[in-house]
Backbone:
């Protein structure tokens, strides 16, 4: 049977990484690459605030092509949709069958992604959909996924959580009001090692800043 050609929407965080891991183990899938939107002005992944050089290091670590989609700042919804339409037209010519996303249970986000792909011939797939986040978070930690928290929404989670490792201690300290996978935007992350990687990325936590109502930790590659 011919394999389904898939590109993964890559955020640089744990849910994307775990989605990648699931796809890597699916014999019916042929992973073609990953794509990421970045803030062109700041050269960082949107919301996760991860530097582009680290994004490229991740792509090297799991050995897949990386397509970077630059977004202006600020970026209106109309601009975003035009840029993504151009990307869809470009990628469709490669014979792609599906885009994979790491969404867990937000129906409106899922519907938005599906609607954006209507009429393109590209299917939207969600390998982690409806996985209970209390189980998923523990599975990630127990499977040696190495992740650092890059962004916290202080309206939902104390800023002291930014820059921390995503591990059992982190999960134990989370308030009951916060989803253990941060699915409601409570926090965002950067993955630097795990079963989906061929090699670890050595990183340090740098400056912590507050910007646009969020608290960010600057993750930088360790100097050899």
Residues:
């Amino acid at each position: 049977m011919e394999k389904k050609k898939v590109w993964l929407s890559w955020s640089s965080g744990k849910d994307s990484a775990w989605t990648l891991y699931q796809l890597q183990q699916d014999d019916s899938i042929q992973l073609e690459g990953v794509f990421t939107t970045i803030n062109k002005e700041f050269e960082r992944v949107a919301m996760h605030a991860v530097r582009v050089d680290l994004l490229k290091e991740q792509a090297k670590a799991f050995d897949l092509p990386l397509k970077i989609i630059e977004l202006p700042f600020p970026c209106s919804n109309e601009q975003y949709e035009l840029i993504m339409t151009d990307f869809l037209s470009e990628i469709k010519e490669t014979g792609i069958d599906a885009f994979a996303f790491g969404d867990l249970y937000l129906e409106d986000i899922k519907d938005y992604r599906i609607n954006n792909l209507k009429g393109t011939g590209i299917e939207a797939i969600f390998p982690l959909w409806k996985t209970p986040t209390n189980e998923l978070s523990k599975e990630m930690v127990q499977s040696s996924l190495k992740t650092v928290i890059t962004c916290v929404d202080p309206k939902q989670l104390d800023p002291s959580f930014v820059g921390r490792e995503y591990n059992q201690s982190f999960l134990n300290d989370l308030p009951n009001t916060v989803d253990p996978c941060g699915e409601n935007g409570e926090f965002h992350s950067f993955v630097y090692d795990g079963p989906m990687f061929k090699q670890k990325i050595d990183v340090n936590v740098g400056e912590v800043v507050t910007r646009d109502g969020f608290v960010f930790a600057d993750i930088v590659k360790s100097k050899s």
User: Anything to note?
Assistant: The first strand starts at residue 4 and ends at 9. The chain has a mean pLDDT of 94. Residues 90 and 179 are 36 Å apart (CA to CA).
